[in-house]
Amino acid sequence: MVSATLLLTAAIAPLASAHFNLEYPVWRANTLESGTNYSQWNYPCAGVPPATSTSGNRTDWPLKGGSVKLDLHHPWEYLFINLGLGVNVTNFNYTLTGPTFWNVSGAGTLCVDLPLPKGLTMSDGQEGSIQVVTVGASGSALYNCADITFRANATTLSKDECKTDDKVSFVQVKGPSGNSTEGGESADGKKSGASLAGLNKVALTAVVGMTLSFVTGMVL
Ligand SMILES: [Cu+2]
């Protein structure tokens, strides 16, 4: 005989563990912690202000792009990872999952090395923020941000630190060009070369139109 309390606990547990963690670069704050005013439903950064010179997290990130590590708790989501430049970013106008976004399946760790869009050259000490957006079945989005400083001596995470779980995979949704590796237009109209380090290792099926190409066994 299972008690009503136990059943209720079992029903609530998935909600409590929902949403996602931005593990790297270190997020602005733990937006899943109770007792805060943060909510991942809030655009653009879950209600968490950016790091300042005296408070908050700011991670050194390589000049040409770096690692992004997520702990995903939902069975699937559409994923957008964006970059904005400056100390107090208001416009996350570069897409790092470009030219469109990813369709992610499976809960668990997703870790990828993301190159910057083509033509975007950073110098040592420049600041920016990474915004991670996930969209679920309802069309509502969840947000988390991490503040970064571009550093010439920063490196991507090691292979040991940056492993995607076997049960997690993603598909890059094709842009109108039908070729996800040749870049597209970002919000500000600049070319965003979407040359994904990881996807380049995989033979993508070039299909014209808004179609999906399945990527399995991502080892990044
Ligand atoms: Cu959730």
UniProtKB/TrEMBL annotation:
Coiled coil: none annotated. The keyword Signal applies. This is Copper acquisition factor BIM1-like domain-containing protein. Residues 1-18 form the signal peptide. It is found in: Cell membrane. Its main location: membrane. Residues 173-192 are annotated as: Disordered. It comes from Neurospora hispaniola. InterPro entries: BIM1-like, BIM1-like_dom. One of its GO terms (cellular component) is side of membrane. The keyword Cytoplasm does not apply. Keywords: Cell membrane, Glycoprotein, GPI-anchor, Lipoprotein, Membrane, Signal. It comes from the Eukaryota.
